[in-house]
Amino acid sequence: MIENDLLEETAHTLMTKAGIEIPDDYLNGIKAMAQAEEGDLSSFVLKAMLENWEAAKEDRRPMCADTGLPRYYVKIGNEAKIDGGFIALERALRQATARATTSVPLRPNRVHPLWRTDNNNNVGINAPEIDWSFEPDADWVDITTVHKGGLFGTDYRMLFPGDGIDGIKRFVLDTLISFGKRGLACQPAIVGIGVGGSKDTCMVLGKQAACLRTVGDRNPDPEIAKLELELQELGNSIGMGAMGFVGKSMVVDCHVEVGYTHTGGMPVSVHCFCLSSRRATARIHADGQVEYRTDPQWFTPYIRRDTVDWGTTAQAAAE
């Protein structure tokens, strides 16, 4: 039985880690970009970013004054047992968010959309967001916190099947150019692209692709993996670098996730996870042991299943 106090304390620790510590995969990606960047101002920005992250880690302060909108992705093993059930788990996550807003501190960004009132703790109606997923044959709970910017850096378009891969490339290119010119994303960014599903699913997939996959990770579908690399190269060839200055460091990596969609359409969404790629994950085992990591490992074979049933027989048939 996983206790409530452990859930809350773990979530609070994750909030702290995500706000202060840059994941190694993203850090190494930026270091590589800094070495390759030829634009003077872009090079300066990349080096300043690296220095800022080191200072934040040393001083134990948030790496960016705008700590975004904290949210959670929770993956629950099918055999996991939680004291108080899902309601207790959700309350623990909300309580951890409120505590972290004061203790880290996180900027209290959440306000009512109409009245602009706030609780000064990043908790409110439908906030923080919690996405749920499940995993067979497991008794642990994975909690990932992501501090995602909540203003810009996202776009959506309904394409037609006839637009094909070229249509996706054209939309992504137009979007990144627009983001760079108008200052709508803090690049270099991990760019997530959702293709397919209904409109809401398409948006969810794109955000998850940006926030829950590490730099260098490739989609298991070889053709999608090829498209990811092509889109990354395309994004870095438009003449814009860090924070929109002249350069070639706009996209540190590109991830694509897909969902089956209506036969008459091909929805596409684009999401930029900003230069403060704030994420942290913990696995809470049934015996109370907690393991922290920076790779959410969200997109398991079960998440990407393409069958009605799940198990050895279904996997073998799919292969």
UniProtKB/TrEMBL annotation:
Metal-binding among keywords: yes
Pfam families: Fumerase
Fe-S hydro-lyase tartrate dehydratase alpha-type catalytic domain boundaries: 9-282
GO molecular function: 4 iron, 4 sulfur cluster binding; lyase activity; metal ion binding
Keywords attached to this entry: 4Fe-4S, Iron, Iron-sulfur, Lyase, Metal-binding
Coiled-coil intervals, chain numbering: none
PANTHER family, per the entry: FUMARATE HYDRATASE-RELATED, L(+)-TARTRATE DEHYDRATASE SUBUNIT ALPHA-RELATED
UniProt similarity note: Belongs to the class-I fumarase family.
Name the UniProt record assigns to this protein: Fumarate hydratase
Species: Hwanghaeella grinnelliae
